[in-house]
């Protein structure tokens, strides 16, 4: 029995993975670190900038996936956005460039890392979004949501949620999810989200969910 990222696989699943590996050499995952540059994203109650948390988690996830021999494409690896220099609408240009990069190498999955915020500071918990009507996107989102609950916060009762409006979800060709790792508007969760130990738990949970999806899809 083969174990990948702590997930036990039967002989048939192992055969399927080995067959796909032989055909394509390796899996490819695109990691999108939301916001960047002069777009900070959400601002936490203690001043934490979403763009910085997103990038830190995305880079850690990249390392974890590469240890599993998964090829990783990053939309950004530093503090910048992807907008064209002469763009009249920087946000739209940034989103279009991100989608172009996500689609360019036909990854097996796209993981967009974000942090949430809400007017009620008691609201907390990670949640994964997928494009409404995408069977593969739903499978990926549900596996990630389950792994986040099992490995990070068993008290989190959120479920993977369909969305038909997010630009990235609508315009990518690969199964794509947006992972809202937590709420910067919740003081306790904000403190956790900037903690290296908690980030490691998040990344390990995401890695397990991604590997489970790659085995099954």
Structure explained in plain terms:
By secondary structure, the protein is α/β, with parallel strands linked by helices. The chain has a single domain (27-216), classed as Aminopeptidase (3-Layer(aba) Sandwich), CATH 3.40.630.40. It has seven helices and eight strands. It has helices at residues 11-24, 50-67, 90-104, 135-151, 167-171, 187-193, 196-216, and strands spanning 2-4, 7-9, 28-33, 71-74, 109-116, 127-131, 161-163, 176-183. It has a six-stranded mixed sheet with strand order 4-3-5-8-6-7, sandwiched between helices. Helix 4 links the parallel strand 6 and strand 7 (161-163). Helix 2 (50-67) packs across helix 7 and helix 4 (135-151) runs antiparallel to helix 7. The longest helix has 21 residues, at 196-216. The protein starts with a strand and ends with a helix. Pfam families: Amidase_3. Keywords: Hydrolase. This is N-acetylmuramoyl-L-alanine amidase LytC. GO terms for molecular function: N-acetylmuramoyl-L-alanine amidase activity. It is an enzyme of class 3 (hydrolase).
Please summarize what this structure is:
It is an enzyme of class 3 (hydrolase). With 217 residues, this protein is α/β, with parallel strands linked by helices.
């Amino acid at each position: 029995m083969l174990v990948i990222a702590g997930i036990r696989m039967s002989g048939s699943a192992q055969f399927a993975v080995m067959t796909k590996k032989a055909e394509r050499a390796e899996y490819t995952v695109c990691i999108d670190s939301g916001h960047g540059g002069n777009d900070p994203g959400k601002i936490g109650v203690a001043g934490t900038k979403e763009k910085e948390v997103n990038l830190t988690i995305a880079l850690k996830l990249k390392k974890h996936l590469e240890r599993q021999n998964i090829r990783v494409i990053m939309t950004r690896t530093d503090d910048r956005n992807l907008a064209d220099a002469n763009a009249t609408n920087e946000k739209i240009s940034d989103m279009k460039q991100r989608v172009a990069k996500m689609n360019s190498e036909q990854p097996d999955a796209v993981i967009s890392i974000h942090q949430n915020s809400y007017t009620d500071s008691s609201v907390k918990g990670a949640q994964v979004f997928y494009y409404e009507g995408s069977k593969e996107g739903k499978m990926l989102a549900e596996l990630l949501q389950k792994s986040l609950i099992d490995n990070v916060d068993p008290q989190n009762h959120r479920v993977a949620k369909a969305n038909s409006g997010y630009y990235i979800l609508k315009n990518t060709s690969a199964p794509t999810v947006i992972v809202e790792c937590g709420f910067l508007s919740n003081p306790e969760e904000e403190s956790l989200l900037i903690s290296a130990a908690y980030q490691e738990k998040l990344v390990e949970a995401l890695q397990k969910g991604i590997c489970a999806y790659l085995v099954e899809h």
